[in-house]
Amino acid sequence: MVEEKNNIRMMQGNExxxxxxxxxxxxxxxxxxxxxxxxxxxxxxxxLPSLGGRFIQMEDEIGAMGAVIGASLAGVKSMTATSGPGxxxxxxxxxxxxxxxxxxxxVDVQRGGPSTGMPTLPSQMDVQQARWxxxxxHGIIALTACSAQESFEQTVRAFNLAETYMTPVILLLDxxxxxxxxxxxxxxxxxxxxxxxxxPGVPPSEYLPYSENERLVPVLAKFxxxxxxxxxxxxxxxxxxxxxxxxxxxxxxxxxxxxxxKHRHEIIEYKMTMMEDADIAVFAYGSVARSAKSAxxxxxEKGVRAGLFEPSVLWPFxxxxxxxxxxHVKAFVVPEMNLGQMARExxxxxxxxxxxxxxxxxxxxxxxxxxxxxxxxxxx
Amino acid sequence: xxxxxxxxxxRNFPHIWCAGCGDGIVLKALIRAMAKLEISxxxxxxxxxxxxxxxxxxxxxxxxxxxxxxRALAFATGVKMANPKLHVIVVTGDGDATAIGGNHYIHxxxxxxxxxxxxxxxxxxxxxxxxxxxxxxxxxxxxxxPYGNLEPSFNISGLAVAAGASFVARGDVYNVKKLDKLxxxxxxxxxxxxxxxxxxxxxxYGRRNRMANPIKLMEWLRDNTVSVAKYDKMTPEEREGKVPxxxxxxxxxxxxxxxxxxxxxKLKVGK
Lengths: 380, 271
Fold this sequence. Notes:
The complex is a heterodimer.
Chain A: H1 2-6, E1 8-12, H2 13-24, E2 28-31, H3 38-50, E3 54-57, H4 61-73, E4 78-82, H5 84-100, E5 104-112, E6 118-122, H6 127-132, E7 141-144, H7 148-165, E8 168-174, H8 175-179, E9 181-185, E10 230-232, H9 246-262, H10 264-267, E11 270-273, E12 280-283, H11 287-301, E13 306-311, E14 313-315, H12 319-326, E15 331-336, H13 341-350, E16 356-360, H14 369-379
Parallel strand pairs in A: 2-3, 2-4, 4-5, 5-8, 7-8, 12-13, 12-15, 15-16
Antiparallel strand pairs in A: 1-9, 5-6, 7-14, 11-13
Chain B: H1 23-36, E1 44-48, E2 63-66, H2 72-82, E3 87-93, H3 94-100, H4 102-111, E4 116-121, E5 124-125, E6 131-132, H5 156-163, E7 167-172, H6 176-188, E8 193-198, H7 214-224, E9 225-227, H8 228-233, H9 236-239, E10 243-250, H10 256-270
Parallel strand pairs in B: 1-2, 1-3, 3-4, 4-8, 7-8, 9-10
Antiparallel strand pairs in B: 5-6, 7-10
């Protein structure tokens, strides 16, 4: 029992994220100071060298993203963390990681925007940027977390998904989750599932880094292991060299989206609370999900059948699950700290089968349980 | 005779560079330097940005990484930190390294991280068709300086010295034997090394500045480059229009990944 207690710590969501990264095997972090994410960099600057890993504070956000990709290609699990303005700057190289299929994790502790916006106040205004911030068609995975505990767990999952699908994975926290100190149970190392990227099973002479395979996921050798290949952000063929062959370009761009789509059912995760008989589904994520959960419980006390749908993966989006739900519920209520960025996706998903009511807050204040409660009661 | 074929990816030839371009001369000099130092192809990584020079990695049979515009040094920093045993060579150009990538250039130099930078200076944005670059000489014409460049040009070797690089040299594609020696020294140096290589572009720069014939550009390099030692003794009047080549800085100072390893070792002992 004593041992169990040693695994329980009080920590911030940002700190839990740093510990989750280390647990997942992250041994390189490159970052740039930005509120409200800096504690992630601060923690890792202390932890990583003590584990033989390396930390670097780069000259800017763009450089941090570049260093993370370089380190990952050299075979080390790598991460960066930022907030809105930095997330904007990183998009160029996140696109590179999508194109070259380099696994890495980008944490965005969301604050209000646009521009410098609200450095110390929470928002969920980057959820669409996570999907479409990169120019060009591409697939992306974005996770979210509502507590310090989930911050730890979702960071581990972000690394596992990155290594499985050879892609950048974005973890969207918000300032409330990042800065709230609460209980975190750190699982024993052997109880944490850790996935490491596949390595080539063929000799270097037969190796094609981007060869077509059933999973649509390439097998990229770590630099320095005898497989000498080329990595580029230009459209390339299976050899990794640039190509102007339209059939090869078409295959590549389709595959970059297709590899995420093909595995969407393995990637998508969500939690449903009191949804079995619900008339009203509250769709909420991040810190707002906690207010929503409390509100749903109050609604039930008043005899209103409300339930909570809480996605832990925002991208790929669970369109089919919501369409199915739309056949059972009277309405959706979507509280968000933005002007309805995910509500749009729900509308797209449910194809007018159920109304989608928005509850938006963009003044830097959290959405509290009473607001969600009132929004549900109004619809009920 | 030296066997270049061992080091190149034959499938990618002919190369994309224009007739008269100096970039192929740099490629061969680099291969000779790697061979001389017996660098294993498996242990070498070449990182580049965007531009004509940055297409070099495609032709060299080592681990190669063609990145985003200006960011080669940031990617290379990650590669080197993740695996300090790798020889990391960065190929970049005047626009790539000192305009869009200027911030990474000065900070990589400041850290003195063990990267070897071959900075091809062609005085122009060649790949995009001849726009003015930070090194286009004042008064020269470019597609975006049709009336002549109004801006003073950048001393990009001087910038690296000022920012803290431990080895800085300038070479050119006419004096190739000298260039070979400079590249060897740069790779040998344990720290941030820059070789600025004058490789003027006949197509995009020369054509607009009465040097469309590549031979004219070669003659210009022959007639206007002087050794650093000679340059130091020249009067300001004599220096006018001359470019010093050779070793500009060679300083013994701590290398970044070695310093980081010391930290790791210290923390291990403390446990």
